[in-house]
Amino acid sequence: MPILARLVCRDKLHERWGRNNRTYATAGSLLAIFKIDRPMLSNDPNRPIAAAACPLGGRSRAVGLALWVVSWLLSLGGCGYLAQWKTNGHKVGPDHVAPTAAVAEHWIDFNNPKLISSQNGVDDENWWRMFRDPEIEQIVAAANSNYLPLRIAMLRIQEARLQRAIAVGNLLPQSQEFFAEFQRIQNSDNGNQIGIADLGNTFDLYQFGFNANWELDVWGRLRRQIESEGAKVQGTIEDRRDVKLSLVSDAIAAYIEIRTNQDRLVFAHANIKAQQKTLELAESRFKNGSVSKLDVTQARANLEATRAAIPELERSLRVANNQLCVLLGLSPRDLIAQMGWAGVPNTPDAIMVGMPVDLLRRRPDIRSAERAIAAQSALIGVAAADLFPTFSLRGTINWQSFNFPDLFESASNAGAIIPGVRWNLLNYGRLMNNVQIQETRLERTIVEYRQAVLKAGSEVEDAMVRFVKAREQIASRERAVAATAESIEIATLQYEEGTVEFDRVNELRKELVRQQDLLALARGEAALGIVAIYRTLGGGWSAADQAIGNCAPAPTIQAEPAPPIRSIPSQESKPPLTASRSPQVIVRTIGTQTPLSKSRYQPIEASQPTSLGVPKSRRQVDRSAPPVSHR
Asked: For residues 385 and 388, what is the distance between their CA atoms, to the nearest angstrom?
């Protein structure tokens, strides 16, 4: 074969399949190297020499095709698929390897005594018990039972498991069918005679049998599909844990918002009562002619400004109540009438936070992202298996007879076993591009995983600084409230004696309102900071969750014991704001609440509604009624 002819033939391959394609470039090179120069039989002198010598036509077609198949296999081996098949348990495609991610060595505030880092992890199960509030226990139990998105997540787990079961079933013969039929055949007297001479133009045919088709998983395509579906099952389990973690955190946060607003309302009502007495004092001195009317108008303006804050606080309280109803799976109702009034749950001085590397094994969203990588990695093997031939085995066994009594005799039996091979040789572009698509998706899921790890670390740091700074504020706010209350006591006595102007007393009253409100907010912020820390750390797993995922439980450490519960006087026994008594803290007891029935947060029957939306037998008017405005 002349050199020009061989080059033209190779160029034809390049023009059809692309010069950058390794497989077909290799095929063209092999044809040129072997110098297959047997031309097609042609007597046309005007036919181009390349066409007359090209091995892809004429009698050399079979040889060229054989060499092309060899070059195809060599190119697949060069891509590493055959090597993977040999080392990965006779499955093409890569085995899953846990991805790496940038994780800090320690937290930013790891030296802060309020944050205890440990190599052994943190106490993640039932972390909310550190608040020592029995109401929270019931809220968490009710939320886990009634929250509808949690049930949706469980149904998604069931759906994913069924999908995996389908993938496992594909390892068995993919199609099987039993058939049985009866035919009465009537041939035409004037047309083609297709019947059997001995039977005449009209005869019966009875038959039944069984067919099966089995694709052999030589390259691991079906097994890789099972791996992918199994990883998706584990991903849905982690998604359910994420929903449950968010549910518990949001429910406790809504409860803390309720208690925070209750504290703020208690402070506000106590200040209204104290400012009323200050107004009465100013009016008394005005009637005696000791002061001008300015003192009376200033006292009244301060009192009305404090009263004006009550509706906004009550609105915030109702919003938090409605949010908690949704998280408990209840229609809107007055939960405050059931849970009563109490202060913000107590927060410990220090909490266990573990190490940053714990996020990789604790946070369900990160674990779900890692399972997505495993699922996508297996799909590369599924796509790569399509590059290789498919081996199948078909079989049939049946019984046929023209007479029904003879149908079950051994002579009526027939059958066949048909091994087969199928190979999409001419679809290599589509198949290779599909492999590259799966590889690109794998790279994308790895980047998303690393982004999730970075985001998780930032969220934990935000939650930690939220808790630490709120705890630092509480001590300062308490001292500010105490100092302001003492200043009011002194200024009021001096005003009664006529040694100071009313402006001093009025300004101190305003400052007390502000400082007490900030104190209540700081206490709520500290409690919400703990919720945020455990939410971002991935805490809140239970033994039941571990059983769902079939995962080894994460090691835990007992949290530091919480300090004694802060005593919070009840509304009925709160101290009056007078010159002789300093109102440092206006709060209530939460440690001595009467435990409520287990069904408190369960949906009520339609036949038991009341004006508050709760059964009359459960209404506790003495405990649940909010403070009354003093006008």
From this structure: 6
Residues in Cβ contact with 135 at an 8 Å cutoff, skipping those fewer than 6 apart:
255, 339, 342, 590, 593, 596
Pairing verdict, β 351-352 and 115-116 = parallel
**What would the pLDDT profile of 395-441 be if each residue is shown by its tens digit?**
998 888 888 888 888 888 888 898 999 888 777 689 989 999 999 99
Q: How far apart are CA 489 and CA 500, in angstroms?
A: 13
Q: Two tokens at 454?
A: 């970075």
**In this predicted model, what pLDDT tens digit does every residue of 343-371 receive, in sequence order?**
999 888 888 888 888 888 889 999 999 99
Beta bridge partners of 208: 180, 399
Gap between the Cα atoms of 457 and 102, Å rounded: 10
Q: Which domain holds residue 24?
A: 3-78
Distance CA 65, CA 203 (A): 49
Q: How far is CA 221 from CA 166, 346, 371, 542, in A?
A: 14, 57, 19, 36
Last residue in a domain, options 58, 78, 98:
78
| pTM of this structure | 0.71
Q: What is the residue whose two structure tokens read 């023009």?
A: 15
Rounded CA gap, 97 and 331, in Å?
Answer: 47
Beta bridge partners of 400: 207
How many domains does the structure of the chain reveal?
Answer: 2
Instruction: Please list the alpha-helical segments (H only) found in 288-355.
Output: 293-327, 336-339
CB within 8 A of 280, min separation 6: which ones?
none
- Of 46, 61, 78, the one marking the end of a domain is 78
Question: 3-class SS at 414?
Answer: strand
